[in-house]
């Protein structure tokens, strides 16, 4: 499993963000039963940069807490079929890992939302990564039923690693 983590925030932190990112990426892959070794990129940025990326990529002129950029879409969320292997572009030619996608986290929002929701920064960070990983596995929350399913899965991933409210 390859997890590339980049910190592009102008200040340092004592929060073990790399450890949390690795734990939750691994737990999410195990949770959905991903049969492949995966490659994921996790980028930490500040609010202003997130605003720019959100506008540039989604046409939304405001910041957000996390963005997910999947490399492909599964026909059914979390279901890995053989047709995934038919496109060699889905896999790293050197390592054979499934190129799952990119996660971009707004560190300013991680901090402010942890305070707003009354839980730890570690828990908020774990939540946002779990949420984003589910998007990379083609889960969504546009419909009420999808939202409930995704929330349940997020909570289970967090509980499995001890990130409780």
Outline the structure in words.
Its main location: cytoplasm. Its cofactor is Zn(2+). It holds the Pfam family YbeY. It is found in: Cytoplasm. It comes from Oribacterium parvum ACB1. This protein is an alpha/beta fold and 165 residues long. The chain has a single domain, classed as Metalloproteases ("zincins"), catalytic domain (Collagenase (Catalytic Domain)), CATH 3.40.390.30. The protein has 5 helices and 4 strands; from the N terminus they run E-H-E-H-E-E-H-H-H. The protein has helices at 17-32, 47-58, 107-117, 121-136, 144-160; strands at 2-7, 38-45, 66-70, 98-106. Strands 1-2-4-3 form a 4-stranded mixed β-sheet, sandwiched between helices. Strand 1, helix 1 (17-32) and strand 2 form a beta-alpha-beta unit. The protein is globular and about 45 Å long. It starts with a strand and ends in a 5-residue tail after the last helix.
